[in-house]
Amino acid sequence: MLVVTTNDLPGYRVVETFGVARGLTVRSRSIVGNIGAAIQIFFGGNITLYTKLAEQARQEAFDELVRQAENMGANAVLAMRYDANEIAAAVTEVLAYGTAVTVEKVA
User: Fold this and answer.
1) What DSSP line would sit under 47-75, residue for residue?
2) Where are the beta strands (DSSP E) in the chain?
3) Mean pLDDT, residues 78-96 taken together
4) pLDDT for res 103
5) What is the largest CA-CA distance in the chain?
6) d(Cα 60, Cα 95) in Å, to the nearest integer?
């Protein structure tokens, strides 16, 4: 599966467009994670516990996007983007989305 953030894919042509594919995950921070992060905040710098949580959420959303695109019959996703929103205290939604397409290599 090719996934790109661009609107086209150099060297390929779009044969079929299936529409928007998306992957969604909703994650919360645990009490233990919040305590550990609070300690890191006290000392400053990168808050690695939150960085890890954010990366896991993005990966889950990305994997679900790829699954949905494959189920639609696509072999590529164009214009892939992430979006994230806090939907409740300590609860974050991460969405990965893009246009599911079939592409073929240009000779």
Assistant:
1) -HHHHHHHHHHHHHHHHHHHHHHHHHT-S
2) 2-3, 12-28, 76-88, 91-105
3) 90
4) 98
5) 57
6) 9
